[in-house]
Amino acid sequence: MKLALLGTGKIVQEVLPVLEELGICPVALLGTERSRARGEELVRRYRIPHLYFDHDELLEGEADAVYIGLPNRVHYQYAKAALLKGKHVIVEKPMVTSLEEFQELRSLARERSLVLVEAMTLHYLPTLAQMKKDLPLLGRPRLVCFNYSQYSSRYDAFQHGEIAPAFDPALGAERLWI
Question: In a 3-state reduction of DSSP, which class is residue 129?
Fold first, then answer.
């Protein structure tokens, strides 16, 4: 897999060491002029061959898959552009901010035989494996309801007035809290 990472923020900085541990070296990173220094540091530290500041130019490159670690409000447009260019897409959660956006992306991926997935590790947690193992002990379930919640590493700052992109209504967060 020739993977390109879109973004230089916190989530991409957390993903890069995991990819390195797995032996996956991204072929490209997308940054902005505002994040140029951070992008240059990340490509140097993780030996990423290409740093782009233009999304279209990155999509013309050698990557066959993109990981979208950008603010929520742009997930849809970047995922759509990648699918239209024939790239597989991994989108950080939440994938999109509406059912209509998801349905359109799913259709594009299916039409082009591309993979479209949300970066959600819940399915691989030991807790889920244990639940599957213990399910027969309950008998035949009649109703099941699950909720996965996690204390955000950004929540303390949020309480002190620092609004990270994940909590910023101007960046698509308002549609996630309805």
Answer: helix
- What is the SS3 assignment for 4? strand
Quote the DSSP letter at residue 89: E
Say if pTM beats, i.e. exceeds, 0.85.
no
Q: Which domains does the chain have, with CATH numbers?
A: 3-119 (3.40.50.720)
pLDDT tens for the chain, 178 residues: list them. Answer: 899 999 999 999 999 999 999 999 999 999 999 999 999 999 999 999 999 999 999 999 999 999 999 988 899 999 999 999 999 999 998 899 899 999 999 999 999 999 999 988 777 788 888 888 988 888 888 887 777 677 778 788 888 888 877 677 776 655 444 3
- How many whole angstroms separate alpha carbon 137 and alpha carbon 149? 25
**Under a CB-based contact definition with an 8 Å cutoff, are residues 152 and 166 in contact?**
yes
- Which positions ≥6 away from 48 have C-beta within 8 Å? 5, 25, 26, 27, 28, 29, 42
Is residue 51 classed exposed, middle or buried when 0-12, 13-18 and 19+ CB atoms within 10 A define those classes? middle
Helix (H) or strand (E) holding 52: strand 50-52
CA distance 17 to 91: 18
